[in-house]
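This section describes the prediction task in plain terms. A model, or a person checking by hand, is given the sequence of a single protein chain and must write out its three-dimensional structure as a string of tokens. No templates, partner chains or ligands are provided. The sample shown here is typical of the held-out split.
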Amino acid sequence: MDFRGGAPRRTYTWIAAHAPWSAWAWRNTAFTAAAIPPALPVFLGLAYALTEPALGPAPLLLLPALCPLLTGLQRSRFRSLLDLDVPRVVRAGSWNSPRGLAERVRSEATWRQYGYHLLVSPLAAVAGALVVLAWTFGVAAACVYGWFWILPSETRTPLSSNDYDLVTAGGVLLLLAAPWLAALCTRLDAFAAAALLGPNRSRELQRRVEDLAESRAGVLDAADLERRRIERDLHDGAQQRLVALAMNLGIARATLPDLPPEAKAVIDEAHREAKEAIEELNSLVRGLHPAVLEDRGLDAALSGIAARAPFPVGLTVDIGQRPGATVEAVAYFVVSETLANVAKHARAQRCSVHVVRGRAPDGPGPQAPGRGGDLLRVSVTDDGVGGADPARGTGLVGLRKRVGSVDGTIMIDSPLGGPTVITVELPCGL
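The expected answer:
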């Protein structure tokens, strides 16, 4: 048979990797056998409690004192023999203080570890003993003909040839089954250790979600601070230089009447370009972070947007206490971009903007991290043609991403013929 490629080669490789003499078999066997020593304190305590009934379960009460040591031994067994790292349980207090000891006793993680050492560890030790016995009896039975020739004639068991054949076949089957028994015990033990010795999976995921939410809030705040810095640099640097340039060009045009027509045309063109550059820079600065938003709040900033819109905008702002700077910035840009989309696509005659801060209604589902039930609701309604669809690239995709960056939600109701209502809810607890 050609083993150089295809299915026969894969079959041969799999058989060689799972044979009784393979590294896989010996590793699992060593791991299951190593479960016996850490379980000896439990067996000894149980035996002492049974032989001395007057003491009751007192010997088993020593297990809490030995629990940290036994947990360390089990983690070392998993790490050294399986390359499996069982994470440590992070504890807030120290065990050598009364308060820390009381918290450790009340901890759910401590009781899960007790459950492993009292239940899983003895069962794993029994399984390890069975695996060792399977190997031992398998080797002894498979080599029964060897024992027949080695042992003296007076000590040989009077069995027929068929009996020796059956014993040999049983020993070979036991040798073939022993690695798989060890692999099954290894998998079950690893599953139990991950569930009982390590941290609680759900609580660990919850803690990681909270950490990620805090990290993201920090990143958003840093990005907002960077936008403010760029806005200040542009406003105090480049914009002031352009204003000075425009003033100088205006003074030159007014005080130098004897210049040739060509020079006057050049000065007029430069003066016009400077004023247009100032207007573009003003729009860019407002797009980065409007100064009025930081100085006077959301009401004044949105009033400026409504005044610059090419159609009448009814504005209502009722927020009471100001939300965080990041939430304010997102609400400002939501209104700004929505009104820009209305002006480009909706062919609307008028628009209304309502901004209200209030509590979120209680629902059956869990609140998102940082939401806390305190929401800033932004609603923009226009009487345009409707049919707003994020898939058509009308700017709503970017709007959804901006709202999602602070765990907000956006709802778009835009039937054909209008009206279009865009409602955004932003968590003020961010």
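For orientation: The two ends are 68 Å apart (CA to CA).
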